[in-house]
Amino acid sequence: MTPATAEVVEELTRLYRELPPRPAVEELEAAAAVLASADAEEEARLAEVDGAAAARAREGVPAELLDVLREARRNAIRLRALLQRKEAAHVVELERRFKVFDDLIQRASRVVSPGDGGGGGGDAAYAVDEVVEVEAKRRPELAAAVATAASEIDRGSKGGLGFETKSVSSLRRAASADNDTEKLGLIQVASLIESSAKKGTTELNLRGKLVDQVEWLPVSLGKLQDVTELDLSENRIMALPSTIGSLRYLTKLDLHANQLINLPDTFGELSSLIDLDLHANQLKSLPTSFGNLTSLANLDLSSNMLKVLPDCLGKLTNLRRLIAETNELEELPYTIGSCTSLMELRLDFNQLKALPEAIGKLEKLEILTLHYNRIKGLPTTIGQLTRLRELDVSFNEVEMIPENICFAASLVKLNVSRNFSDLRALPKSIGELEMLEELDISSNQIRILPDSFRYLSKLRVFLADETPLEVPPKEVVKLGAQEVVNYMKNMVASREASRKETDKRSFWAWIRSLFGCCKKDQGLGSVQLS
């Protein structure tokens, strides 16, 4: 090789040193997924804007003002999509430039080593050694790995001068991929998905790890075929890709504290799902396919914007725990009675006015909380809940508690407080709740406790604040639950003793009056005979 040729090879080596890291295969796949997802997401968002504008038009908003708002929203969506595409487009363009460089290196190789088809002579080997030396200086801890990659190149996998940068670049990235302190952008998320899919990862935790600009996930999410537990909570995700339905082995999914407005129809294809946390989102409805999640055991829908629960909820026959508090629910579907495995049902802070009679079919139910609703009465089937241990109907408009609540004999905690002027009496049979330990009747209009109260031998907490109790008097209530029970017991015993004494006196008075009448009649008869 002539000195001038050596100078050219040296120049090519210098150019190589100045190249940025080449995207790894996973990065390229991630970039492609991001670009594909960005297009679909942009179209979906634009369609939502048009639908929202049509709804506002029906509300009487001026058409021109709506046009301005619609165009502003559409422009904002396009701008966000452009920013989200930017990094992915950069990766794709970077790879395109590397391919151009590859072609140039191949041409140079054919010129330097024309006899062996670019097999790589002594000077080519020197160039490869330069590559190894450069990478070793950049990352000393990767020197062995870089040397291995370079030797593979030198054996002729690409031929010529051996300027294959892909393997080296991938190795550089692999060393810094596991960094829990930095938040991930969209392209990093997509790259992580690609690498996790290839590794067969079973658990993936991205809780609070996404930058705020990541509002949706790439379609490549569906590649996580082996994942069983996925945590995407505490981010700002607004939409899930339809490909999420491909995660057939997923058993636990945590999406709480995001900004989800709806779920894709394919969500119902997560047939292995057992635990699902959707609380603290902006969900207004659930897809009809939701009923296909027949393995679901724990479901948290709290702190959303749900006004109704779908009828398909009744298909969730393995559901044991349903949390739907802090929504806008006005009623429960009658099909709730088909959720026969349900043990815990929390419906606090809604707009419920009544419970369906079908609630009595939930024979395994142990906890039922209805705090802060608008319920006026409990269904008569409440007595069929023989395993019920806790019932909370405080802060409602309850006017009456049905007598057959006494059949819920496992009840340990009962809260009927703060129904204010509506609730005026406890059921006469309340004393049959022999397992009852806690009872709160505060802020009601109850004045007299029923006689059967004396049978609540296990009662240890009794609250009656701001309730105008007359029997027993407030002084007794302040002494504690068992003092109230004893008071009622003594009062009833005293009344019964008094009644017996009264009955006894009445009996003898009747006898005396009877004999008195007989003597009088006899006196009258004697007068007539004379």
UniProtKB/TrEMBL annotation:
Gene3D superfamilies associated with the record: Ribonuclease Inhibitor
Pfam families attached to this UniProt entry: LRR_1, LRR_8
TM stretches of this protein: none
Biological process according to GO: response to light stimulus
InterPro entries in the cross-refs: Leu-rich_rpt, Leu-rich_rpt_typical-subtyp, LRR_dom_sf, LRR_domain-containing
Protein name per its UniProtKB record: Plant intracellular Ras-group-related LRR protein 5
Main function: Leucine-rich repeat protein that likely mediates protein interactions, possibly in the context of signal transduction.
Family per similarity comment: Belongs to the SHOC2 family.
